Amino acid sequence: MRIRLAVGLIATLLMAGTASAATTSVSAYGVGSLKSEWLAGYNGTNGLDTNGLFDLGLMGQANIKVYRARFRQDQVVSNGAFTQWTLLDNLVRQAALRDITIEPVLINMPGEVYTPPNTAGARTTFGNFATAVAKRYGPSGSYWPSCGCTAHPIKVWEVWNEENDAPFWDPPSPSQYGALLALVRSKLRAVDPSARILMGGLAYP
To answer: What CA–CA distance (Å, rounded) separates 94 from 125?
Structure first.
């Protein structure tokens, strides 16, 4: 159900983009899934997931050019710095090679547990994470010259997922999420003034 809702959200956003000349449009369908590791090889020492690469290939052939996938703060941080990019590099590169642009869901889930940044300090760290990924994969991203692929810079960023429901945000707090959204928006716009920021997709209560 959540994947179908995500597909509907992306389709609605894309149609809204084509309806107005003042907004950026994408001539493609998009799909959503939080299990991005199934597509791009988050299985570490085992290398890339061949089934996932096949799925990405089918998406590219079917003109599904936007893929919603989670970018996890906990998977790129090491000793307090954002330096572990191998997994996301795999995802972004394999998608770009198939003419697919990633629409990230910025999230944090150490130990596979959703851990929302519900304090000022945690929000600052999460905002710094957003800055780091935008500097790496955005329109002027440092990753693209070494990608070995046609650049598919990320211009749309989703902040968290299903923040109105536990366990994604436990307990849900509109004020905490609003503070996070405002901070991350300012961080992303500082890197890319034209960046588009989405609030996290909502769950049924």
So the answer is: 28
Q: How far apart are CA 27 and CA 83, in angstroms?
A: 34
Q: Within 10 Å of residue 179's Cβ, how many Cβ atoms?
A: 16
- The residue among 94, 93, 108, 87 whose CA lies nearest residue 42 is 87
- In angstroms, the CA 5 to CA 98 distance is 24
Rounded to an integer, what distance in angstroms lies between the CA atom of residue 41 and that of residue 39?
Answer: 6
Confidence of residue 86 (pLDDT cuts 50, 70, 90): confident
Q: Taking the model in full, what pTM does it have?
A: 0.82
Please report, in angstroms and rounded to a whole number, the separation of the first and last CA atoms in the chain: 13
- Burial (Cβ within 10 Å: 0-12, 13-18, ≥19) of residue 152: buried
For 88-120, the pLDDT digits (tens) are: 998 899 999 999 999 999 999 999 899 999 999
**Cβ contact 169:163 at 8 Å:** yes
Q: Which stretch of 41-55, 78-92, 134-148, 168-182 has the lowest confidence by average pLDDT?
A: 41-55
CA distance 46 to 36: 16
Query: Which of these, 151, 153, 149, lies nearest to 137 by C-alpha position?
Result: 153
Cα separation, 171 vs 119, in Å, equals: 13
